[in-house]
Amino acid sequence: MRPTPASAQAAPLLVVMGVSGSGKTTFGAELARRLGVPFADADDFHTPAGIAKMSAGVPLDDEDRLPWLRAIGAWLAGHARDGGVAGCSALKRSYRDLLREYAPDVAFVHLHGAPEIVRRRVAERPGHFMPASLVDSQFQTLEPLEPGERGLVLDLDAPLDDLVAAYLAAAPLSDPTPKKADR
C-alpha cells in the first residue's frame, strides 16, 4: 500500500498565529471543532521557566522559544496525516520555518489587527501569565506572512463566526502566497 501524500490529507493542518490576545485559542478551538480535528493551544507547551519569565513581564527570546517550538512542531508532525489546528504565536518567519521542518504542509492563519484592541483583550484576561505590558514587544517581534508562506490573514476584530466563514471560503490554503480575507 502506498502512503497518502500529505497534500491529499482529509483535513487541514493549520497554525493559527498572531500576537498574544489576538484570539488564537478562541478561533483555533472553534475552527478545529467545525473541521472535526484536534486543537492544541501552544500555551500548554511552554516550559515552566518560560511561563515564569513571561509572568515577570520579561519577553521570551529565541533561545527560550526553541524547546517550545520544537514541542509544537512535534505535535503538528503527529497530526500531519489526519489534520489538526494549533494556536501558536509563530511571530517570526524563522519560527514558522522551524514548524515547517516538522510539518512541511502546515498552513498559517494570521489573526492580525490593531494593538489597542489586543492590549484591551490581554488586560481583560483573568489569570493568564502574559501581561499586557508585553503586547508591544510581540508586535515589534511580529513578521507577517511572506510570499512563499501558505496562509491567510484575517481581521482579529471580526466576529468568531465571520472568521470561521472567511477561513472556510478561502480553504484549502494551498497557494504559496498569503491571502488577505475580506470580512
Widest sheet: strand ordering: 2-3-1-4-5-6
Percentage beta strand: 5-15%
The average pLDDT is 85
Radius of gyration: 16 Å
- Overall 3D form: globular
Q: Measure the end-to-end span.
A: 44 Å
Order of secondary-structure elements: EHEHHEHEHHEHE
Report what the structure shows.
Pfam families: SKI. This is Gluconokinase. Its EC number is 2.7.1.12. It catalyses: D-gluconate + ATP = 6-phospho-D-gluconate + ADP + H(+). InterPro entries: P-loop_NTPase, Shikimate/glucono_kinase, Therm_gnt_kin. The protein is an alpha/beta fold and 183 residues long. The chain has a single domain, classed as 3-Layer(aba) Sandwich (Rossmann fold), CATH 3.40.50. Helix content is 40%, strand content 14%. It has helices spanning 24-35, 48-55, 62-78, 93-102, 115-123, 135-141, 160-170; strands at residues 13-17, 39-41, 84-87, 107-112, 151-155, 179-180. The chain has a 6-stranded parallel beta sheet with strand order 2-3-1-4-5-6, sandwiched between helices. Strand 5, helix 7 and strand 6 form a beta-alpha-beta unit. The longest helix has 17 residues, at 62-78. Residues 1-9 have low confidence and may be disordered.
